[in-house]
Design brief:
about 300 residues; mainly alpha; DNA polymerase, domain 1; hpI Integrase, Chain A; 2 domains; 3-stranded antiparallel beta sheet; 13 helices; 3 strands; about 55% helix
Length: about 300
Amino acid sequence: MDKYLSMFLDYLTVERGLSINTIQSYKTDIEQFIYYCKQQDKNRVDSFNHSILTFYLLYLRKNGKAPTTVSRHLASLKGFCRFLLNEGVIEHDPTVNFDSPRLKQRLPSILSPGEIDKLLTQPDTGKYAGIRDKAMLELLYATGLRVSEMIWLNNEHVNLEHGYVRCLGKGSKERMIPLGDIAVTSISNYITRARNKLTRGKPVFALFVNQHGKRLTRQGFWKILKKYSYQAGIKKTITPHTFRHSFATHMLENGADLRSVQEMLGHADITTTQIYTHLTNTRLKKIYSKTHPRA
């Protein structure tokens, strides 16, 4: 479980953009659970089931933990299990039948269109890595992809001729998202001018690769984004999810309907999308072409 805990903490940092204190709280709670599992000789992920969770929560209560503390531990384990399920590590969520208080949803700062423009001009397109970075930033803002979805894209997932990207989201659900002209141009420029140089001509499935020609990681993109945020002089806290929320907000502010944005974001439940606003329904491609600031 230690390996997957490390992956989970990386996800909370890069994709969720949670504070250091919040991440440390998750880490402490889950480490305590892993320690308990080790004492029970059940430190494998396949031992992570309803029974071990029940005994662990009883163990916490018997050791004098307050109900609020037990609830916090359960909330941490629920988050961990959802991550494992989405990553395909486990097939069933063992916490699904455990009730816990709903946590307040925290959103990263939303960037204005002007701030987005400023950030997108930071990559040095005179360099191969800069061409790649420009393509990634344009793609994220053009589609609202999660950073994990972006780094797992392969060449065949992007259709530049017809202007769309095909991605596999949470729960292995596939969706098609339109691409604006600016994003298409940036990605095409990357593929024709820079990608082959970064891969050194070697066959690589990944669309976006690092300086060693291997698939870019979430942490690698996080470092790239922090660099450009600093260069742009933007004081707000920016995470990869900032692009996703900015994408949705700007679309809705310019007249996109809620269902279209829900479809593009890949939200299973529209109530998740309702954190932005409520607007009328129109056709997806028409709305995208008409309303997106960089379409």
